[in-house]
Every structure is written in C-alpha cells, then in structure tokens.
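REQUEST ID: PR-0412
SUBMITTED BY: lab tech R.K.
PRIORITY: routine
TASK: structure prediction, single protein chain
INPUT:
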Amino acid sequence: MILELFLIIIGLALLLKGSDIIVDAAKALSKKYNLSHTAIGLTLISLGTSLPEITTNLYVGTRISAGADVSGIAVGLIIGSQVTQITLILGTVALIGTMYAKKHTFKREIPMLFIALGALWLSALDGYVHPIEALGLVSIYLVYLAFLNRDHNMSKISSMK
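STATUS: complete
OUTPUT:
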C-alpha cells in the first residue's frame, strides 16, 4: 500500500511538471506560428491531454480483438474522462479564478460539443459502436480540425485588413 501511494504521488508530481512543459511549449508554438491560444488549446493541448485515454483505449481495443470482454473499460474511461473535464475540472478552475473566453469561441465550440455528443449517442443507441460509425466519429473530428484551421486563417486575413 505504501509503494502504491508513493507511486501515485510521484506520478502526480511528474504530471504537474509535464503539464508546465506542455503549456510553455504550446505558448511558444502559438507565438511562433501566430496561432491563437484557443486554437492551440482546442487541438494540440486537447490531443496531448487525451493521450492517456487514447493509449488505454488502443490497448483495450487489442484486448477486445483477442476476445476479452473489456469494452466497458473503454466506454467508462472516455465518458468518465469527458464528464470529469467538463464539470469537475472546469468548475474547479472557475472557482479558483474567473475564466474568460470570447463569445465567438463559445458560439463555435458549444455546438461542436453537442454535435460530438449527439453523434456518439446516436452511434451507441443499439448498445455498441460499429467500425463504420467509429469512422464517422473520427471524420467529424477531422472536419472539425479543418474548420478550426480555416476559421483561424480567415480571422488572420480579416485582422490584416
């Protein structure tokens, strides 16, 4: 039990230091390539913070392919992680200090959040997500990234005028 507690503390300390490094590197990329902090957060940081879930789910996927019944772990991990990020983490940060974002960001991102959740809900109505449905979910994300890139480029052009 003491070893496990020690490993958790070490893991949290490494996570904290790693977070500092990633945020500093993201700010540097944002400055170097003239990208907004929001665009960096919505793409690079969000992918980086999701890497543990992605890695775990890839492993779970290999176990499912081998015949293990571990689908619940994957579903619980993804849904639990997102609910935690949207409610607990966002709420805790807002309790510590008021969070600000441009109205444009909320008008663009909140509908995307509901589109993603709705697509997942529709895909899972029958109790499982087919590979074709999974391809649709991944496609939605790729279209979203393309939209973010186009939106960022359009805002750069309009700010130059």
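NOTES: Residues 40 and 78 are 22 Å apart (CA to CA).
REVIEWED BY: pending
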